[in-house]
Design a protein that fits this description.
The chain is of the alpha+beta class. It contains 13 helices and 18 strands. The strands form three sheets. Strands 1, 2, 3, 4, 5, 6, 7, 10, 11, 13 and 16 form an eleven-stranded mixed β-sheet that branches. Helix 5 crosses helix 6 and helix 5 runs antiparallel to helix 8. The longest helix has 12 residues. The termini are far apart. Belongs to the FAH family. It comes from Streptomyces hyderabadensis. Keywords: Hydrolase, Metal-binding. It holds the Pfam family FAA_hydrolase.
């Protein structure tokens, strides 16, 4: 199976029926905001210099549909030119569909991944001890933890029991306690899009993809749309210490988003996010294949509760934010040696999909081998001024 994206596999199940906005690199012009339409990609940068500007309007989907701009290419042409190998630098390629928004992520929002974080902590990031620790933790916590509402009296009672047994964990605290874990996944403009290489730090020996739905949030806290994300994770680094979370989560090319941002309108709402099933496929150059799925129905905190903990009187984002909602995917099957679980190999292809949002595909490379992130906010402003968009 060829996971590299084409228009048919990249688009949502209803094709261009939704309000889809993306970004492409146009040689000589720089990052450009595009409306995804039946006949191809239309550059609307002169109307909306950034995706942030579009998301700040009262009705982004309606404004996107009304925006006029030059058709620059067919989607298949841009997708074919996006992978680094064989890219023609004189033609457009796909970027992540957000720009000035802060890139944030919520952790341990699913019970399965919460328990895996506890296991990482107990084995200090050593995959060899994970299987034994997994069974020990499950015996202590039991099967009812999945039904607990974070911050509830029942969750507090379980905490008291676990503390008394010496089994409490910082991951249980954010998994079933009142406060969610929300952290910075990547700097502004550092995320990569579909078809690009995604990065895993070369020193990591235990890591995995994290397939997630990602919400786009305006500066007022309104949720305006959604996309897909891969919250690439270094399990050995975070397992050594939760204080190493920045090193585990934020490396060159370690935040993937896309393929496009689908804006909310009749036919696509927050309830579609709540009902989504996200699938994951990993294909290795060695013939390895992994298939899994994650149901948003199993999330322990409602997406809008996570957004309320992200932004409000306690914290503001003048340019808006995007929020990874977390994953229940935590692979435990051995890929290499027995007892070592799953970890990426150089060249793995990772496809993350859900019918309403399409498919995000990335090749895994060492972060050090991915294209360095060199185009920052000042560069974007200069490019927009040069083309008369600001």
């Amino acid at each position: 199976m060829n996971l590299w994206p084409d228009a048919t596999t990249t688009l949502p199940a209803d094709g261009t029926g939704g309000a889809l906005v993306g970004r492409v690199w146009r040689p000589g012009l720089g990052p450009s905001v595009v409306a995804v339409r039946e006949d191809g990609l239309h550059d609307i940068t002169t109307t909306f210099p950034t995706v942030r500007d579009l998301c700040e309007t009262p009705d982004p989907a309606e404004r996107l549909r009304a925006a006029r701009g030059e058709r620059i290419a067919g989607l298949d042409e841009v997708l074919a030119n996006t992978p680094l190998d064989g890219r023609n630098p004189r033609r457009p390629w796909l970027l992540a569909p957000v720009d000035l928004q802060a890139v944030k992520a919520a952790g341990v929002t699913f019970v399965v991944s919460m328990l895996e974080r506890v296991i990482e902590e107990r084995v200090r990031g050593d995959a060899a001890g994970a299987a034994e620790a997994r069974e020990r933790i499950r015996r202590l916590v039991g099967d009812d933890v999945a039904s607990l509402r974070p911050g509830s009296d029942e969750a507090a009672a379980l905490k008291e029991i676990l503390v008394a047994q010496g089994a409490w964990s910082q991951y249980l605290e954010v998994g079933i306690g009142p406060d969610a874990e929300i952290f910075t996944k990547a700097p502004v403009l550092a995320a990569v899009g579909s078809g690009a290489d995604a990065g895993v730090h070369a020193a990591s020996r235990w890591n995995n993809p994290e397939p997630e739905v990602v919400l786009a949030v305006s500066s007022t806290g309104a949720v305006v749309g959604a996309t897909l994300g891969n919250d690439v994770n270094l399990r050995d680094v975070e397992g050594r210490s939760a204080l190493l979370l920045p090193q585990a989560k934020d490396n060159n090319a370690s935040a993937a988003l896309g393929p496009f941002l689908r804006l909310f309108e009749p036919g696509f709402r927050i309830d579609d996010v709540r009902r989504a099933t996200v699938t994951l496929t990993v294909e290795g150059a060695d013939g390895y294949r992994l298939d899994a799925e994650s149901s948003m129905a199993a999330i322990s905190r409602d997406p809008l509760d996570l957004v309320a903990q992200l932004v409000g009187p306690h914290h503001q984002y003048p340019d808006g934010a995007v929020l990874y909602l977390g994953t229940m995917f935590a692979p435990v099957e051995d890929r290499d040696a027995p007892g070592q679980g799953f970890t990426h190999h150089d060249g793995d292809l990772v496809a993350i999909a859900t019918p309403k949002l399409g498919t995000l595909v990335n090749r895994i490379r060492p972060s050090e081998a991915c294209v360095p992130w060199t185009f920052g906010i000042a560069d974007l402003m200069r490019a927009l001024v040069a083309r008369g968009a600001l």
